[in-house]
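Lab notebook, page 48
Experiment: co-folding of the full assembly
Goal: obtain a model of how the components sit together before planning crosslinking
Operator: M.T.
Materials (sequences as entered):
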Amino acid sequence: MHISSKSDYGIRAMLELASAYEVDPDELVRGEYIASAQSIPAKFLEGILRQLRLAGLVASRRGVEGGYRLDCDPSKVTIADIIRVLDGPLADVHGIRPEDVVYEGASEHLRDVWVAVRASLRDVLERTTLRDVLIGKLPRETRRLLDRPDAWTRR
Amino acid sequence: MHISSKSDYGIRAMLELASAYEVDPDELVRGEYIASAQSIPAKFLEGILRQLRLAGLVASRRGVEGGYRLDCDPSKVTIADIIRVLDGPLADVHGIRPEDVVYEGASEHLRDVWVAVRASLRDVLERTTLRDVLIGKLPRETRRLLDRPDAWTRR
DNA sequence: GCAATAGCATACTATTCTGCTAGGCAAAGT
DNA sequence: ACTTTGCCTAGCAGAATAGTATGCTATTGC
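Observation: model returned without errors.
Model output:
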């Protein structure tokens, strides 16, 4: 249960692009600018932005005046979309999809737990869009999770 | 968002022990038996069971009639407890606790998303006990996630 | 046309993590 | 004694993670 640097960087880059998009959807932002604004290693970020472009979420142009821009509506793209592009499926049990694992005997019902885990992840990550995060207005269901007293305490 | 072999094996071993516990709480189960019943590499399992013993969830005895048994009430121990013993905290952002990550500018509210993700994982994993999984009666909230039509479809 | 700029593409690398295996030691029963 | 079963340390191959290096290509301004 671990969010990789790659996904974290990718989402932050998309947020930076979404921020520019709100001002002018056609404005291009240089990779170097995103990297320094979000403290991300520039060359590493380049590869991440390439993946996002190949997935159709980002567009780019080369040369002087070149850069990246969002190629999607920030209120339509979810955090889950970005993670899937960069790191693959949201949840897996040592490489196998939750619904595909096969258990015997006493562990028969363990698969249901993994499917429920994935469903709960989807609940948060597929509901929350780039725009939600940018303006800080998370979906009601997500917000409800945060407002619980123990959400911020470590176990 | 990945469940390791280690946690998966550990939980299945605990389920096997819970199953014996229901018959007789003092009965000892040999490591070799658990390994073959759950198709887990025996020597790998040994290390996992040692971690669980050091955490106080399992007890053991050596020698001819030796083996392992649960040292806790299966209706008190949750899946989250086992994962924390074997793989550490439920959720982290490239090694940092969700509530500890620091974001600038456009990503300011991303932290809230990660805290919500952790909260939703806790919702499933801290609510579901070994006994729940053993008898296949998952908590109502968890069951509700499974009953949704798209819970079993892949994205 | 030419240089400067900024993204594109491939390859390489260092470190850590994962998923195991080997081998000997220590205790418990017969 | 001897067998059984767990205890413990070490090692190890392969994959994943988190980058870096280097050269190429498209675009613009002069």
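Interpretation: Chain B touches chain A through 65 residues (CB under 8 Å).
Next step: discuss with group before ordering constructs.
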